[in-house]
Amino acid sequence: MVNRKELNPEASPQAAFGARLRRAREARGWTQDHFATLVGCTGRHISALETSRKSPTLPFSRKVDIAFGMLNTAESFEREWREIKHGSLLEGFPEYVKHEGRAVEIRVFEVGIIPGLLQTPEYARVLADSAVRREAITSEQADARVLFLAERQAALVRPRAPMVLVVIDESCIRRIVGGAEVMDAQLRRLAEFAALPNTMLQIAPYDMGEHRTFDRPANLLTLADRAVLAYVESQTQGHLDREIASVVPLLTAYHQLQAEALSQAASVAMINEARKGTP
Question: Which residue has the higher pLDDT, 125 or 73?
């Protein structure tokens, strides 16, 4: 094999995928061209994937699993693909987003940062780049995170848009992210969101004190069949909950939070005041 390229699986998640693909293929004695016929592509495409010149896709990963007999196993290539695409996301969140794209009502509570659904691209990029500098994620994962957020926001722009109710802690608008220009645009985006016919935006002010019913971010989805799902997370873990016994108390707590928070008009007024105070 004169043109055989040595692989470095530690170079990136894509490189690790490609190196494993080559090992699995060669262990079966298959050429790139033969393997390509099994998964519906060309030998050149297999070569590009093995050497990480191209990134794998979900349909391709599933075809690979079928060819290798790994479909729906712990060692599946689909599982590895999901790690590449969503490796920087907390457990349970990608599954939550699937339901979010079909929900008829979305309820969100956030502390400290603007909720993802309301973030501008510039605000989201600042947060992702900050995580890279802290070495919490790779630059590739940062790009994937920003793209994933854009796809998530786009999924809500549909003919029958969901009702989106958002309560944010006052800290979300007081914490300057990305400097004056980025923050001003982000605050303007909040006011524009509040003006939409299918939204409600409220701020839980600092002086709400002990009446704030959540101490961490919370998301609640109402689906078309009226089933309610909850997603809550900490710094390191996320949990998607479908059990009515544990979801209903969260829904009650959200209603209590809305009752104590500022009205939408008062919330928008606070946002506009914060814009004036941005250096």
Answer: 125
Selected residue with higher pLDDT from 220 and 143: 220
**Residue entry with tokens 């009502």:** 105
**Cα-based distances in Å from 137 to 17, 53, 111:** 18, 21, 21
Summarize the confidence of residues 161-166 as an average pLDDT.
96
Q: Among residues 10, 12, 11, 39, which one has the least CA distance to residue 24?
A: 39
Task: Note the pLDDT tens digit of each residue in 57-98.
Answer: 888 999 999 999 998 887 888 877 876 666 556 666 777 888
Q: Which residues contact 225 (CB under 8 A, 6 or more apart)?
A: none
Residue 248 CA to residue 89 CA, distance in Å, equals 26
Q: Assign domain 93-116+158-277 one CATH number from 3.90.350, 3.10.150, 3.30.870, 4.10.410.
A: 3.30.870
Superfamily holding 13-71: lambda repressor-like DNA-binding domains (1.10.260.40)
pLDDT of residue 1: 45
DSSP 170-197: THHHHS--SHHHHHHHHHHHHHHHHTST
Short-list 179, 189, 177, CA closest to 118: 189
